[in-house]
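Attaching the record inline, Q. Sequence:
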Amino acid sequence: MNLSRIIRALSGIPAIICLWPSIAGAGAWPQPVGHLQLIVPFSVTRASETYDAHGKAVRRNAYRKNELTPYFEYGLFKDLTLLGQLSFVHERTSWLGSTISDRGLSDIQLGARYALGTWQDTSISLQPSLIWHGAMNQSDPSASQRGDVDGEFAVTLGRHFKWLGFDGFSDNLIGIRVKPGNRPSEFRANLTIGVNFNARTMLLLKSESTSTFSKGSGASANQSQSNKLGLSLIRRLDKTVSLEVGAAASLSGRNTIKERSLRAALWYDF
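Structure, as predicted:
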């Protein structure tokens, strides 16, 4: 893993944050006690190119993925929020008239967010989680197999402020996912910036970066990197229901697909 590159990338985050407003209710903050937030997104992903080991985009098999990923947050105590997610996936790869298809429960994630407190107007939380994989028909020995369990430990940072009269938030997640067996572990750095235009409309800018790392000589040739950027618009329909529509695309990568996706989600607050 190229730590210097990661540090340089993360160093730009504070500068970006200072240019955008923020609102409450993002992932870096705990949910109120007894409050349940349920998000049900459906996404469609397509790819016809892949990034090689040098980061160059090259032609590949046609790849399609449809994914339903219901996600919940529940405020158990004042500083403790329970988290969970199910991923149902239908993947298809087509090449020269042949199609390889797989569908089913991809993974189950369970975790919690514990709020440590606030430092210099920034809310800090710890977010450990476990991920069970239900993948099928995987021939890649480094890919997740059915029954594999990963562990992830993350830190979230949240900040509120105003810009040009708008309220908004910045929500940063930095974490490491440890994968047992021969699978490389993964570093994650996600940034979400939200702009609240009025009481019912919010714009989200989402950046997702991942980089795998493993030990041993020659391991770097099989390591992967992925950098994606997404934009979503959320519109509150009534007191408990909101609608999200958005899109995302790969900006760069290494040993991973160059993807583009569309997303629609319903947000429920109980």
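Confidence is low (pLDDT under 50) at residues 1-25. The CA atoms of residues 24 and 237 lie 18 Å apart.

More tomorrow.
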